[in-house]
Specification:
Helix content: 25-40%
Number of helices: 13
CATH architecture of one domain: 3-Layer(aba) Sandwich
Largest sheet: 5 strands, mixed
Oligomer: single chain
CATH superfamily of one domain: Thiolase/Chalcone synthase
Distance between the termini: 22 Å
Length: 383
């Protein structure tokens, strides 16, 4: 298998883009990545998306975007894995390039979510859960996470305010990211006074949806001359039961544990070697569970990393350095690609005031559903 490297990256600002269509948002990110890579054509296009068929009434996104950005006659396909669609598309592209089947691939994560009413989007997001045993009972996606968070607090004795550092850190970092949706610092007091969504999850525990797209051009590593060269050191994926209640332990992300373990082995690193971690903080409880399952904290102690100031820039394990899902925003099918683009920015040294000094190894973990599908990627900077 050939070593794979990132040749170019591109992204759009996450917002409510009333003036732009799905094709324009995705096209802007795709063309930006191709411009950054210095290419006009690629051999294949992989699109990560969850909701276009439901929210935008558009299927066949591979050809849809290939047509729009001028990749006529090229292979193109859409990959869907709920909120993990972006990273799933990236993994498919890696395998295509690494195997030698194609010499270049464009990966695009895209979602336009704000054209529908909130209740319709909530219903669409619920399709990532078990239709028969969860959705049929009337529970929403945030409701599922609220049940997990409530149980976690009960089992380990944490208070709701103990989760505040995750959101505070994300918002502080997003202030310096022009592509982030929310540019507002928050405090513990604001966190606690925020409107309740599904007890104990309030508005500042939850990530905002939005319209956005992020993209990459990947090629065999020997084709990348720019320094530092960012290569793919590991790509791993795992699944768990789609319904949370079917899991042996609903407070442990087994798929995160399995995919991160495999990724560490592939990259030849350990958690202590990771310089930056873009985790999937769709809700603050998921940040804690991801840190624990990925080996950065003991069971029930993920919250402690935030309370002890270990997750900020310059901390023991910097997370959500560009705002994370919480403040950068969560256009679900695009999120995994935003995470990977942000890791590349860190490894290139392009993050300004949120740059992690000397960052050489970065990890991104993208979650589909409530932990049902989890993909972990590790990237390395080679100088």
């Amino acid at each position: 298998m050939r070593k794979v490297a990132i040749l170019g990256i591109g992204q759009t600002k996450i917002d409510e883009h009333w003036e732009k269509s799905l094709r324009e948002i995705g096209g802007d990110a795709a063309l930006a990545a191709m411009q950054d890579a210095g290419v006009e054509k690629v051999d294949a296009l992989f699109v990560g998306n969850m909701l276009a068929s439901i929210v935008n009434g558009q299927n066949q996104l591979g050809t849809f975007f290939a047509d729009w950005v001028g990749l006529w006659k090229q292979e193109a396909v859409k990959i869907e894995s709920a909120c993990g669609s972006g990273a799933a598309a990236f993994r498919a592209a890696i395998m295509a390039v690494a195997s030698g089947d194609v010499d270049s691939a464009l990966v695009l994560g895209v979602e336009k979510m704000t054209d529908k009413a909130g209740r319709d989007v909530t219903a669409a997001l619920a399709t990532a859960a078990d239709a028969d045993y969860e959705v049929e009972q009337g529970i929403s996606f945030v409701g599922i996470n609220a049940l997990v968070m409530r149980r976690y607090m009960y089992e380990y004795g944490w208070k709701h305010e103990d989760f505040a550092p995750f959101s505070i850190n994300a918002h502080a970092n997003a202030m310096h990211n022009p592509y982030a949706r929310l540019h507002e610092k928050i405090t513990v007091e604001k966190f606690e006074k925020s409107s309740m969504v599904a007890t104990p999850i309030n508005l500042l525990d939850a990530s905002p949806i939005g319209d956005g797209a992020a993209a990459m051009v990947i090629v065999p590593a020997d084709r990348v001359q720019r320094k530092p060269r960012v290569t793919v050191a590991a790509s791993a994926a795992s699944t768990d039961t789609i319904a949370v209640h079917s899991r042996k332990d609903p407070l442990f992300l087994q798929a995160a544990y399995a995919s991160s373990k495999r990724a560490y082995e592939m990259a030849g690193v350990a958690p202590k070697d990771i310089d930056v971690f873009e985790l999937h903080d769709a809700f603050s409880i998921m940040a804690a569970l991801s840190l624990e399952a990925s080996g950065f904290a003991e069971r029930g102690q993920g919250v402690r990393l935030g309370l002890d100031n270990k997750i900020g820039i310059g901390g023991e394990i910097p997370v959500c350095t560009r705002g994370g899902l919480k403040a950068r925003g969560h256009p679900v099918g695009a999120t995994g690609m935003y995470q990977l683009v942000e890791v590349v920015q860190q490894l290139r040294g392009e993050c300004g005031k949120t740059q992690v000094d000397g960052a050489k190894i970065g990890m991104a973990q993208n979650i589909g559903g409530s932990g049902a599908t989890i993909l972990t990627h590790i990237l390395k900077s080679e100088r």
